[in-house]
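anyone seen this seq b4? input:
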Amino acid sequence: MHDPDSQSGGSPCSSCSVEGCSSRGQAEQTSACSQKLSRMSQVRHKIVVLSGKGGVGKSTVAVNLAASLAASGLKVGLLDVDIHGPSIPTMLGVEASKVEGDDKGRYPVDCNGIKVMSIGFLLPHPDSPVVWRGPVKMGVIKQFVEETVWGELDCLVIDSPPGTGDEPLTVCQVVEGLDGAVIVTTPQKVASVDVRKSISFCRQLKLPVLGVVENMSGFACPHCGEVTQILPAGGGREMALDMQVPFLGAIPMDPVIALSGDGGEAFVSAHGASAVAEKIREIFAPLQAMCQKA
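predicted toks r here
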């Protein structure tokens, strides 16, 4: 029997024009799967930002982590999988941008060197709600992971919604080769009680915890820089010690951080010379060192 591969050196399906051919369909499916796998294989490091509690500033941490890594010369992507509250486009000032795509996939929006993908780019209007059940959300997250053409990245930061439900679970199951999770909390006990569940969630999935960030840890005076403790301090450090995971550091409250997010700029980029920005860079230094490794 004549073997088409013996002369062409390619797949026998490459010149086949028979509609409905099962072999051709399998070959196309295999090719598509290989293409999807190759996209994520170009991303050297992957970090997911988690919290069991809403309102702790998780997206703020994710945005400033991505900006800090990009400022160090790394190629960085930021994936927003908060389906119901996609705040990343607003915090980076690209909420009016739209995602372009072709037969190769969807292309992330470029924001000052950070490649960004979010459901916010696909909504007809910023006020449009996403009224989806779990299976649909899981499918969309899977599409984001598999169909986004990131190109070569040193690090992909993934901002996940709060809790231990569908979205973070899907991310951890679909994204192969996750380096680990950054867990965000605020100092008070009512937050750390819920955030501890995120650490247990990571352990159940055998996902390394890269460290805990205690956000809103005291108030930094915008005039003198002195930090005044408003909430009970040290809850994040105590939780990290008790659960035997690294403590990356504490970020004080600074009104300018909120203003930067509302204004569409990463705080560490817009106010890089401030003492709080320097503190944030120190907190992220171990993650930067990890991402700089081959």
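Confidence is low (pLDDT under 50) at residues 1-12, 27-31. Residues 50-291 form a domain with the Rossmann fold fold (CATH 3.40.50.300). kinda curious what u guys think
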